[in-house]
Amino acid sequence: MNKIILTAIREFKATALTPAFLFGAVILPLIIWGVLAAALGAGLFSQKPEPTKGKIALVDPTPDKQLTALVAARLSPEAQKAKLEAMRAEASAKLAEVMGSMGENAAKQAEGLFKFDPSEIDVESHEPSADLEAVRQRVRDGELLALIEVTQSTIEPGGTFTDQVGEKAKARDIEMIEDAVANSVVDVRLEDSGMSAPLVRALYSRPSAQQVTLKASGGETKGSEMIQRFLPLAFLMFLAIAIFTGGGYLLMSTVEEKSSRIMEVLLSSMSPMQLMTGKIIGQGFVGLLLLLVYGGLGVFAAIQFAFMDLIPPSLLVWLVVYFLMGYFIYASFNAAIGAAVNEAREAQALQGPIMGLTILIMYLAIFSVMISDNPHSSIARGLSYFPPATPFVMSMRVAYINDPMPMWELVSTTVVGVLGMIASVWFAAKIFRVGVLMYGQPPSLIGLIKWMRYA
Amino acid sequence: MSDNAILLDGVVKTFGDKKAVDHLDLQVPTGSVCGFLGPNGAGKTTTIRMVMSIIYPDSGRIEVLGKKSAIESKDRIGYLPEERGVYRKMKVGDFLAYIARLKGMDAGRDLTTKIDNWLDRVQLADVRKKKCEQLSKGMQQKVQFIATIIHDPELIILDEPFSGLDPVNARLLRTLIDEMRTAGKTIIFSTHVLASADQLCDRVFMINKGQKVLDGSIEGIRAKFDPKTIVVEPAASNADQDFYGKVQSISGVHSVTRIGERGSVYEAHLNDGADAQTVLSAIAAAMPVRRIELRKATLEDIFVNLVDPGDSEDTIRAALKSDAAMSVGA
Question: For domain B226-294, which CATH number applies: 3.90.960.10, 3.30.70.920, 3.10.20.90, 2.130.10.10?
Answer without folding.
Answer: 3.30.70.920
